[in-house]
Amino acid sequence: MSFLPLILFFFLGLNLASITNGDDNHQFVYNGFTSANNLSLDGVAMVTPDGLVELTNDGIRVKGHAFYPSPLHFRETPNGTVQSFSVSFVFGIVPTFSDLNSGHGITFVIAPSKNFSDAIAAQYFGLFNSETNGNDRGHIFAIELDTVKNTEFGDMNDNHVGIDINNLTSLQSYPAGYYEESGRFKNLTLASMEAIQVWVDYDREATRINVTMAPLAMAKPVRPLLSATYNLSGLLMERSYIGFSSSTGATSARHYLLGWSFSMNGGTALAIDIAKLPKLPRVGPKSDPSNLLQIILPVATAAFLVAVGATVFLLVRRRMRYTELREDWEIDFGPHRFAYKDLFHATEGFQNKNLLGTGGAGRVYKGMLLGSKQEIAVKKIPQNSKESMKQFVAEIVSIGCLDHRNLVHLLGYSRRKGELILVYEYMSNGSLEKYLYGQDGRCTLDWGQRFHIIKGIASGLLYLHEEWEKVVIHRDVKPSNILLDNKMNAKIGDFGLSRLHDHGANPQTTHVVGTIGYLAPEIALTGKVTPLADVFSFGILALEITCGQKPMKQNAQGIQQTLVGWVLECWKKGSVVDAVDANLQADYDNAEAGLVLKLGLLCSHPSEHSRPNMRQVTQYLNGDMPLPETISNPGFGLFHLMQERESPTCTPCHIHH
Ligand SMILES: *[C@@H]1O[C@H](CO)[C@@H](O)[C@H](O)[C@H]1NC(C)=O
Ligand SMILES: *[C@@H]1O[C@H](CO)[C@@H](O)[C@H](O)[C@H]1NC(C)=O
Ligand SMILES: *[C@@H]1O[C@H](CO)[C@@H](O)[C@H](O)[C@H]1NC(C)=O
Ligand SMILES: *[C@@H]1O[C@H](CO)[C@@H](O)[C@H](O)[C@H]1NC(C)=O
Ligand SMILES: *[C@@H]1O[C@H](CO)[C@@H](O)[C@H](O)[C@H]1NC(C)=O
Ligand SMILES: *[C@@H]1O[C@H](CO)[C@@H](O)[C@H](O)[C@H]1NC(C)=O
Ligand SMILES: *[C@@H]1O[C@H](CO)[C@@H](O)[C@H](O)[C@H]1NC(C)=O
């Protein structure tokens, strides 16, 4: 029987990578993947029983990697130029919810290491973080298939392909699609649940990178989608790993690989055998879960007439429990919208045992999203003013796009009647407040940690003030709004929230937002808020962290005194570091503590024009710049003013004579 060997060959070849040649002339083809393959997977990546690599699941802000296990030699000799290579792969993106767009995308990567544990999900694709992105020492080449428009990296739309050199701002990018033979451009939707094939070719002589894509069944189009001249010899390490990185953001999608082939110096990549590829899962995206109830309700009542009363009662109760407000204008914010029901379940029905704290703005609960097992903090804010909600949600959503290592990430929101619900990433070490005022001589933070926290807060505020597209003024910088992650990194929370009070405020009354003790005097006087008001609060906070004292303290005579006044007094008496928290038992860096105390005083200067801005503050803290001369001794210019200032609204902040 002549076809028997053929069948055997077929089965043996199925799903197995065929590796030919030695190290220098690497070639391989994966026509589907088996669990027995050698790919190095991490994050949420896994191989499905069908032979798909599932890079991400439905979790939000997750990342997944799949790499060829061993590094490849990209140069013939250690000092030679990078050889030509060809890659081809087939991917499919299945959005989690059909009515929302999906984040964030897949990248094909060539990198010196497979270890991306420090990389961030969402717009960083699990490849970079805010520090490594744009770093020339990364030696990272990537092709991004990006399904979210991110202005930070100059993205053109939410469905594009880009060539990235160490930097998520692409060297070249174009909407996903391909050129027909006639020269006509046809759009492709990346997150379409359809398999799409991509070819990446590098020509060593011409130093040209071509990227081409087409629907699965189609032959490779002649004209590439992207074609850039870039000499990879200056970029790639001799030994580099190749693979894929995917991530989800506030919205998710399952990112799949169906097949992959690679060849170095061997002309075009070995053809992927389309007939052997596994199928993308047929289950489509879920529709919004809250719609389901509306269908179940009438069906249930009709079918179980006897149980009608009970069923209706139960369902009505259930619906009331989960009822949320949704209006037309919110469609634009869809990706950031959480179903109330999911949050209800995540927090076990907002039970008190999950209560993390009660702040001025509302109650905060700990929760865990059922699907992704992600830990979250859910804040419920009573909210009555309707007209401002739209504008506020727009702001919240835009603020949700802020991404900085010293900001608590806002994942999204939900709404109910009279209630706004904000969902944040969960910070395992809670707020700074509980570490500060070491009771009974207990010292909870050493000096190194304190200094690191102060620098972190400064860096977060700098980002809010200067490094994002809009100026964001926090207006309520204080210990309870600083959260600590598992590595004791400081993250600023609740930014942008103070605007809520603004929008909701009765125009007849001038409502001042902020907390007594941290409030810059000019706000009380003029109501005008500038970033320098945050600098003031930062100054007080820095003193607090260093001294382990509240902004108001009692002196030995039992008289209320401001912390600022007390630190100044210590300084006048000869040594400013006498103000440092006694719980540290003199175990601190004299120069650093002195710097922070003087800087704290400068920042909390009553005259806003005498305060530095956050950029200068970070420069002082990093030792890039010495403190200005004016503050080199305690007799500096406005010292007097500082101790004896009088402003009617700030009475509690003053020394009572
Ligand atoms: C698995 O890896 C080993 C060593 O890296 C290699 O010899 C082998 O051919 C690989 N097998 C497959 C199926 O990739
Ligand atoms: C490669 O370059 C390094 C310095 O860049 C040099 O020291 C070394 O001799 C070179 N090796 C060869 C084989 O050319
Ligand atoms: C990956 O890198 C991080 C630090 O960048 C390190 O802590 C970790 O041990 C590394 N993991 C592996 C598997 O090498
Ligand atoms: C990334 O590339 C863009 C465009 O070339 C450039 O403006 C930006 O400064 C780069 N980012 C970094 C961090 O170098
Ligand atoms: C392809 O999509 C882009 C962006 O979505 C759009 O501007 C363009 O008109 C589309 N082109 C065609 C031929 O449909
Ligand atoms: C890239 O595409 C151009 C046509 O646009 C073609 O001339 C060139 O040979 C291609 N290079 C590679 C490496 O495929
Ligand atoms: C690419 O850069 C390398 C040095 O990094 C150089 O030797 C080589 O000539 C360049 N190739 C081209 C075609 O310019």
Automatic annotation (TrEMBL):
Residue runs in coiled coils: none
Principal location listed in the UniProt entry: membrane
Record carries keyword ATP-binding: yes
Sequence ranges assigned to domain Protein kinase in this UniProt record: 350-621
Enzyme class, UniProt record, top EC level: transferase
GO molecular function, one term: carbohydrate binding
The UniProt record lists the keyword Signal: yes
Entry keyword set: ATP-binding, Glycoprotein, Kinase, Lectin, Membrane, Nucleotide-binding, Receptor, Serine/threonine-protein kinase, Signal, Transferase, Transmembrane, Transmembrane helix
EC code(s) of this entry: 2.7.11.1
Gene Ontology CC entries for this record: plasma membrane
Signal peptide (UniProt feature, chain positions): 1-22
Transmembrane region(s): 295-316
GO biological process: defense response to bacterium; defense response to oomycetes
InterPro entries membership: ConA-like_dom_sf (IPR013320), Kinase-like_dom_sf (IPR011009), L-type_Lectin-RKs (IPR050528), Legume_lectin_dom (IPR001220), Prot_kinase_dom (IPR000719), Ser/Thr_kinase_AS (IPR008271)
PANTHER family: PTHR27007
Family membership noted in the UniProt record: In the C-terminal section; belongs to the protein kinase superfamily. Ser/Thr protein kinase family.
Protein name, per record: non-specific serine/threonine protein kinase
Organism from which the protein derives: Oryza sativa subsp. japonica
Phylogenetic lineage: Eukaryota, Viridiplantae, Streptophyta, Embryophyta, Tracheophyta
